[in-house]
Amino acid sequence: MPNVKLHVEDSLWSERGEAIRACLLPMREMLCAELDVPVGACQIAAIPFAGIPDQPQVNLELLILPRSDRTREKLTALGEKLRAHFDGATGGAPMAVRFAELVPETYVALK
């Protein structure tokens, strides 16, 4: 399961929100393929925010459950793919990508 929060600085969202929204479904397809999860396991939210000028205008946070095939190298490569995926839609705005693993024993999801 990837739980994805895409934070986009509000002025960038105002200018490019439609293009960013258009990237969400293809991003879900990419995540399902790369992380080997079904569509129903994904939760994706795009959230405008007010931030500080010296931080990235786009911040993509992915929470995932650990698996042996989700190595640091694989996740780093996926992070680069995600940055490239949003580059045109964001006009090349600075983007941070962060992955965090959940603790399976304490993770609870009610849908």
Notes on the protein architecture:
This protein is of the alpha/beta class. It is built from three helices and four strands; from the N terminus they run βααββαβ. A four-stranded mixed beta sheet has the order 2-1-3-4. Helix 1 packs across helix 3.
Short description:
The chain is built from three helices and four strands. With 111 residues, it is an alpha/beta fold.
Summarize the topology.
Blueprint (H helix, E strand, L loop, with lengths): L2 E7 H13 L1 H12 L7 E7 L8 E7 L7 H19 L4 E7 L10
**Straight-line distance between termini:** 13 Å
Give me the count of strands: 4
Read across the widest sheet, the strand sequence of neighbours is 2-1-3-4
Strand content: 25-35%
Class inferred from helices and paired strands: alpha/beta
Q: Major sheet: size, sense and barrel closure? A: 4 strands, mixed
Order of helices and strands: EHHEEHE
Oligomeric form of this entry? single chain
Low-pLDDT runs? none
Q: Provide a count of the helices.
A: 3
| Mean pLDDT, all residues | 95
Spatial shape: globular
**Compute the gyration radius: what is it?**
14 Å
